Amino acid sequence: MDVSTVSLLALFAISVVPLAPTELTLIGMGMLAAQQGGSLAPVILVATAGCLLCDAGLYLLGRYGGGSWVLDRVRRRPSAEATLGWLTRHARRRPVAVLVVSRWLPAGGTAGSLLVGSLRWPRSVFAVASAIGVTLWVTYAVLLGYLGGELVQQPFVSLGASLAVAALLAAVAAAVLRRHSGHDLRYASGTAGGPAVHPAEPA
């Protein structure tokens, strides 16, 4: 088994674990692809598959009342609390768009999938939103690393620059959420495993 295969297997393993450093891994692999002349397609495909599998598992946990322990871990971070509060308020009005945008928010992929599962979104709606969001977010992270690798030849410098850009974008998003969030998360935790509330799905 060659190094590239092992790397892709490791990427898949990281991608399927909630709250794992998937973005850091994607940026790093994008940077390596730029500096070693590798292809981005396998990285994007493997990471997308792993993230979709993770989303599906979290959705089922939320839908059937088993996601409380993951939500507890999410709530330990103030920025992630704000993400969950924003998702709770907006998920019903613009369901697909909200879940797509949540990928760029702190712990947004994890919190979003759990929340919409607890809200009993129709599986088809969730699948479309998850596929769009995951594909765009994975591509963004890989390209960010690739761009850093193309612009700066020193590996540690290019990785640091790419991570700095990603951290800046995350910090801006978190600041906006903290400003506009009411931090009312009790509703989100109370819906886990509860009755169906999504208007698109008949009772």
From TrEMBL:
Cross-referenced Pfam families, in alphabetical order? VTT_dom
What is the protein's membrane topology class? Multi-pass membrane protein
Look up the record and report any one GO term of the cellular component aspect. Answer: plasma membrane
Give the residue spans that cross the bilayer: none
Instruction: For this UniProt record, give its keywords in alphabetical order, as a comma-separated list.
Output: Cell membrane, Membrane, Transmembrane, Transmembrane helix
Q: Which PANTHER family match?
A: ALKALINE PHOSPHATASE LIKE PROTEIN, UNDECAPRENYL PHOSPHATE TRANSPORTER A
- To which protein family does this belong? Belongs to the DedA family.
Name assigned to this protein:
VTT domain-containing protein
